[in-house]
Amino acid sequence: MIIGSKREQVIENIQQAAGVGAFHSKVEVDDPVLNEEQRQVLIRNYLQKRTTWGFRANNRMARYAANTASKLINRNTEIIGLEHVKELTGGAILTSNHFNPLDNTVLRLFSMKMGKEGLYIVSNEENFAMSGWIGYLMNYADTVPVGSSQRYMVNQFEDILMKLLKRKKYVLFYPEQEMWFNYRKPRPLKRGAYYYAAKFNVPVISCFIEIQDLEKMDTAEFHKVRYILHILPAIFPEPVKSVRENSLIMCEQDYRQKKAAYEMIYGKPLDYGFEVEDIAGWIPACMGQSDILPKYHKAEEKGGMAT
């Protein structure tokens, strides 16, 4: 499903950012832009309303909608590697590659299969300023904002996260930081998710989503795609190491696992030289379908709904 406009400009931004190693750069062109005062107001409003009855009612409706949509969107999605987490019973931090506004639905599906009623998602604060149905889900579907305020992050954010993990919830972090549309390659990871895993002594469930092109078209420029979620070995903090040491080790291990998964899935070593096939389903204007399909066609649609 193609969400957002100006995809050619976004892909050009991805190419430029990858070329200079700016792997955490924002590449979307229509995201909300907030000044510091607006950010503070947004966080303050979030904290004030999250304990109200109105928020709880909207949360229940948004969670139901998100879970239902996740099942529909991912009718063709496969999950591989559940054996790596079958012994986990408590709270955990999930990490995954980030390439689509709806890629969290894949992780929601996994969370439901693990017996969780919802998946909590850590998201940049500007996403809470979005409008429409995406904005509604951003504000109410079990999301927690990452704020620019150090005071908020050290106090309220950590308190919210600690309570969720103690209640045995799953919390999704995107350690690549920004979304890169349909980008297949795993990017270097930021350390935040692993810092919190180490601090609160919970495992990291390491995930990598494979994107397969389908033959059917979604738009004139993009094939439909399907997903395969690869659950990689869980990563645990070591009690004898400090929070900082654990966060560095866990971050490095997660990147190694995602890199190895990419190389196994796509059958080539990971490098960041830009290629057309880095963008799943894409047919550049200068190329026709006959040029693309022999190289990129990976899967046949098997009924149901492709993403």
From TrEMBL:
Record key words, sorted: Acyltransferase, Transferase
Record-annotated Phospholipid/glycerol acyltransferase domain positions: 92-212
GO molecular function: acyltransferase activity
Pfam families: Acyltransferase
Signal peptide residue numbers: none
Name of the protein described by the UniProt record: 1-acyl-sn-glycerol-3-phosphate acyltransferase
